[in-house]
């Protein structure tokens, strides 16, 4: 579950910066610096609402699961894959876990990169 939030967070850092660089939503879409982390200073209400939604989802997940089964978000068992068998299901679970961990590291890297030099991620990648 946290890996899925991290996957969304990676996109949530890159896409607004791309649209700000293109001027799609106007010149003041992001702060003058063009970095996604400036949202904490420029729009704290939406930031608070986003964290509130994540907190509600996490609370619902904790209330709906038993303490020994909280590692499983029941994503693979909901019918996404048609009768994969126990071996294939274990393989899918491992891949999902690895993708989530990679997304967590990617998000941490994005945040660190913006904090180090305060330039947009896409600008750092292109230079």
Automatic annotation (TrEMBL):
Determine if Protein biosynthesis is one of this entry's keywords: no
The source's domain of life comes to Eukaryota
Keywords on this record? Chlorophyll, Chloroplast, Chromophore, Light-harvesting polypeptide, Photosynthesis, Plastid
Which amino acids does the record list as binding chlorophyll b?
4, 76
Binding-site list for chlorophyll a: 2, 95-96, 99, 101, 113
GO CC entries: chloroplast; light-harvesting complex
Q: Where does the protein end up? A: Plastid, Chloroplast
GO biological processes: photosynthesis
UniProt main location, coarse: plastid
The signal peptide, as residue positions, is none
Note the InterPro entries from the entry: Chloro_AB-bd_pln, Chloroa_b-bind
| Keyword check for Chloroplast | yes
Role summary: The light-harvesting complex (LHC) functions as a light receptor, it captures and delivers excitation energy to photosystems with which it is closely associated. Energy is transferred from the carotenoid and chlorophyll C (or B) to chlorophyll A and the photosynthetic reaction centers where it is used to synthesize ATP and reducing power.
Q: Which family does it belong to?
A: Belongs to the fucoxanthin chlorophyll protein family.
Tell me what this protein is called.
Chlorophyll a-b binding protein, chloroplastic
Organism name: Stephanodiscus triporus
């Amino acid at each position: 579950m946290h890996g899925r939030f991290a996957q969304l967070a990676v996109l949530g850092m890159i896409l607004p910066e791309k649209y700000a660089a293109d001027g799609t939503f106007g010149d003041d879409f992001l702060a003058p610096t063009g970095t996604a982390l400036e949202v904490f200073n420029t729009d704290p209400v939406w930031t608070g609402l986003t964290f509130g939604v994540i907190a509600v989802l996490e609370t619902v997940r904790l209330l709906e699961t038993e303490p020994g089964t909280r590692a499983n978000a029941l994503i693979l068992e909901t019918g996404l894959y048609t009768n994969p068998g126990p071996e294939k299901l274990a393989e899918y679970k491992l891949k999902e876990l690895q993708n989530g961990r990679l997304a967590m590291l990617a998000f941490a890297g994005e945040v660190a990169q913006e904090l180090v030099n305060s330039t947009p991620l896409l600008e750092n990648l292109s230079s």
